[in-house]
């Protein structure tokens, strides 16, 4: 049933994208916006990361996270590319590889459901420190580093709660302490926020 629902959503997404770009203008955009919200709701519900957020907080997060469907073999980002997006894995597997200067690529880990990919974007790093490739067809949610910074600045309670949830996932993968990863995430966001504020 879930696969049928998802298949219908992707088909309607393609139709509405065509309509938005060609014929229906404003109303096509309205329908497309509603469809994206429905898909985002559907994917948010699949992740334990978003449990226990209030309805108001979920409304904020729904505006930030965009559904992203990628086929097997898709390269989400390359090592050294600008760290623009953070990805949450709703379904599928993403392979993380690191390429040292003096050797072949090394497989770091395989990220599965409820995992986080591209967290360099949340840490405020300028580039990704590894590459990520879809090892199967993937359902993802994507958020930009800039949107994460704005959330943290505009709604600290929701931003802090989201960072703590991300930190728990990242810390588990890195075998690091939860508190230390929260500090790293906060420091990365605050450093970039300060850079964007002109000196007086």
DSSP, total strands: 8
> What is the third-level CATH name, the topology of the largest domain?
Jelly Rolls
**Helix proportion:** 40-55%
Level-1 CATH class name of the largest domain: Mainly Beta
Average predicted local confidence, pLDDT: 77
How many separate domains make up the residues? 2
State the CATH architecture of the largest domain.
Sandwich
The fourth-level CATH homologous superfamily of the largest domain is Jelly Rolls
Estimated structural class: alpha+beta
Listing every helix as H and every strand as E from the N terminus to the C terminus, the arrangement reads HHHEEEEEEHEEHHH
Q: What is the topology, as strand order, of the major beta sheet?
A: 1-8-3-6
Question: What's the story with the biggest beta sheet?
Answer: 4 strands, antiparallel
Q: Pick out the low-confidence regions.
A: 8-12, 14-24, 26-33, 196-200
């Amino acid at each position: 049933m879930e696969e049928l629902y998802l298949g219908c959503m992707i088909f309607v997404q393609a139709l509405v994208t065509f309509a938005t770009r060609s014929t229906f203008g404003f109303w096509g955009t309205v329908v497309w916006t509603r469809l994206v919200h429905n898909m985002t709701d559907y994917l948010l519900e699949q992740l334990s990361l978003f449990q226990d957020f209030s309805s108001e907080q979920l409304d904020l997060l729904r505006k930030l996270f965009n559904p992203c469907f990628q086929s097997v073999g898709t390269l989400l980002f390359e090592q050294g590319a600008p760290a623009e997006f953070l990805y949450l894995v709703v379904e599928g597997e993403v392979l993380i590889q690191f390429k040292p200067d003096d050797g072949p690529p090394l497989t770091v880990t395989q990220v599965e459901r409820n995992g986080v990919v591209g967290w360099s974007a949340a840490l405020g790093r300028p580039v990704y420190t590894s590459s990520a490739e879809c090892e199967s067809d993937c359902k993802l949610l994507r958020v930009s580093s800039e949107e994460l910074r704005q959330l943290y600045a505009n709604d600290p309670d929701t931003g802090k709660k989201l960072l703590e949830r991300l930190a728990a996932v990242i810390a588990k993968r890195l075998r690091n302490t939860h508190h230390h990863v929260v500090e790293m995430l906060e420091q990365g966001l605050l450093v970039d926020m300060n850079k964007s504020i002109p000196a007086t």
